[in-house]
Amino acid sequence: MALREVQPLQRNESGIAAMIATLGQRFGDRLTTGMALREQHGHTLTYIPNQPPDAVFFAHSTEEVQEAVRVCAAQHVPVIPFGTGTSLEGGVNAPAGGLCIDLGRMDAIVKVNAEDLDAVVQPGVTREALNVHLRDAGLFFPIDPGANASLGGMAATRASGTNAVRYGTMRENVISVTAVMPDGSAIRTGGRARKSSAGYDLTRLLVGSEGTLGIITELTVRLYGIPEAMASAVCSFPDVEAACNATIMAMQAGIPVARIELMDRSCVEAVNAYSRTGFSASPLLLLEFHGSASGVREQSEFFGEIAAETGGSGFEWVADPEDRARMWKARHDVYFAMQAAAPGKRTIANDACVPISRLADCVAETERDIAEAGLYGPVLGHVGDGNFHVALFVDSDDADELARAEGVLERLSRRAMAMDGTCTGEHGIGQGKRAMLRHEHGNGTDFMAAIKHAFDPRNIMNPGKVIPD
Amino acid sequence: MALREVQPLQRNESGIAAMIATLGQRFGDRLTTGMALREQHGHTLTYIPNQPPDAVFFAHSTEEVQEAVRVCAAQHVPVIPFGTGTSLEGGVNAPAGGLCIDLGRMDAIVKVNAEDLDAVVQPGVTREALNVHLRDAGLFFPIDPGANASLGGMAATRASGTNAVRYGTMRENVISVTAVMPDGSAIRTGGRARKSSAGYDLTRLLVGSEGTLGIITELTVRLYGIPEAMASAVCSFPDVEAACNATIMAMQAGIPVARIELMDRSCVEAVNAYSRTGFSASPLLLLEFHGSASGVREQSEFFGEIAAETGGSGFEWVADPEDRARMWKARHDVYFAMQAAAPGKRTIANDACVPISRLADCVAETERDIAEAGLYGPVLGHVGDGNFHVALFVDSDDADELARAEGVLERLSRRAMAMDGTCTGEHGIGQGKRAMLRHEHGNGTDFMAAIKHAFDPRNIMNPGKVIPD
Known about the structure:
The structure is a homodimer.
Chain A: H1 13-27, E1 31-32, H2 35-42, E2 55-58, H3 62-75, E3 79-82, E4 99-102, E5 109-113, E6 118-121, H4 127-134, E7 139-140, H5 151-156, H6 164-167, H7 170-173, E8 174-180, E9 186-188, H8 202-206, E10 215-222, E11 224-225, E12 229-236, H9 240-252, E13 257-263, H10 265-275, E14 284-291, H11 293-309, E15 313-318, H12 321-332, H13 334-341, E16 346-353, H14 359-372, E17 379-382, E18 387-394, H15 399-418, H16 434-441, H17 444-455
Parallel strand pairs in A: 2-4, 3-4
Antiparallel strand pairs in A: 1-2, 5-6, 6-10, 7-11, 8-9, 8-10, 12-14, 12-15, 13-14, 13-17, 16-18, 17-18
Helix pairs in contact in A: 1-3, 9-11, 9-14, 10-13, 14-15
């Protein structure tokens, strides 16, 4: 059995052929059926096997997406939206074939409303492109999932990342979206007001729906003023529990940390070897503070006191921009570092999220489980949110190792849920965790399925994802 | 025509009689059919006529709510959840009669998880009761809609209030809920993890659904550490535009204001007369800062500089707790102040929310419209969110005045929507704004109706609210 095996769904061959004929005639070479491009569009950054779509369409506008969806709806053919292909749970696979709609060319920054601290963007705009555009205006968009993902994809998967502890996730930072629905109609879920009590929250329903309810073709996102000052700090701890205790105290004291990242010992060792850093070989917290010049100094010093109380050592305040950049570069390169420590192996990225009071237990039990399974799997986490990643490294040809990895990941999901947490804090359900949804949400899953069925009775929108059969 | 006339829906007399017989036998005197109590449970804090339910049931547990909903589902009888009855748009009226489920006795604070900064509460806990309970732990729950509302009702209506600019609304501060659904099943929409990407966001779907999709019987809310220091400030401005400009600059500069409240001239005059304050008779901002002692001083001083640049005068920093309390008491008493300025009249409270760049225009046009209609209607707002209130004072017996008020309010909703805002920032749709929902959401309304129908095909959950016929 291959790890994370996914069943092919029933293909509608005649409908697919008719869709390709119709859209090919309409859009010419913007509809592609070449295998290389199709495979690239089924690619995900994890270990789930590739299931390419039958055709890829490069859309230029909401109206074109509507047109394509209407053809697929008439032919009962699947539609899979595609941003940058950086999802981790098989989000862009096409288990029943169908049409992939690539939104990458819809990459216009439609409007920046500096006074309102918002921007209207097309879904193909990447977070880096948006931030380059905003820099001169003194603004930024904070959500940083690591990859240079598209904002449409980040909204669809409810992405977050290192600074969610301060700025929230896509859930909090998408003000409204325009989406093409399974019947080909387009809706706009709200205006640009910061809050609204007018009706059901369709914005938050589409955010995180992973393309199964509609395709986001425009979004309004929150922006923030670039802080006057930023400072960083590092601190080593004797164990993960001490690092978690320091984090809990900092959160309770209301220190507005912008990032607070945990690396376990195994992760620190990989980073030291790869990035030539000299961190002590024990759990490490990396922190960032945003505010006024005196504010960030005060925050860092306060955290330093907390760290000293909870057993931290080697606390170091890093205000110099180059030193800060070097430190966060080491954090950003952590996957390369881990990969270098496990040559010839492939990584299976996974995440879970628990209440912060349970984080130390959850990480410790997971570390033990990984060791007992004889696997290499460093842990790093967005510890302020109780969210952490396990990167398991496996030999694709070793069926036994794959099976042990599968066991570790399933136990991790169940452990997090048993601690009143979730089987995924930011990666999403996709194909990989569909079996977990009912464990986590019980009969709430029936109400999710009822929404899916009400919106998409023929199940053409990204079928085989999120909602279990 | 009475203002905000609401049509009675079709009553199911035999079903109602059977429901009362069944539940009366089961719950004895916890099911009441006395008119005084029924009318009290149809009461709302606005001008919508009372439509009492046929019976009121005082529930003690989720299981009892399930039992009552199952009886109503079997008899096709409406169910209306009730918290404290402070909704402003007819949320607890019973246009087709039916059963009101009063959740006020479900007022247990189930668990405070200080390390995780969350609390699990029953829906009848009021925000004041929660904050009294939390005080000794150094924690607080920030959302303050003015009334001492129940947390279940606040979640159901997506409430917010004065400090949403810093802490968000119920949308951001409800982590998960337990809800009894229209078929009598109970779901829990999530655990206590700070974030999750596992499936559709049922939490945010139920928050703001105003009891039309399910009844919230338990909720987990976010808590915050009581800040080390709080300071307040007041500043007068020559006009609303100058006050808005100061607010915009403060937000762009990233000053983490906890409250920034606008009163227009008419509102300030009423407050001066009632609370014996000596504010200059021009638009006023009241601010609050939360943080460290040096942080709040720095924030206030920074805001003082911005105010000076934008034409503010009489800027005054208020750090003394008694002075602060006096200032915010005047703000909290503003409805009494306005009422005193319009003896014998009744208030129609209304709200709208626009992007902050449009706020000055929206308020100025609304003030002109009120004056042209010959009405008394002070404006006050949560200006950091672009959200503002218009309190129109009318003589219930003056049909012409009522009609003019109706016109002002409808134009206000349309004006806000035309400015890419919303017809309600925090009061909800209820009965009063059902006609506006389609204007605001267009065919998005069809998808809201589809969810309603999928969850509640017989339309027993708070019928006649939110979703237009």
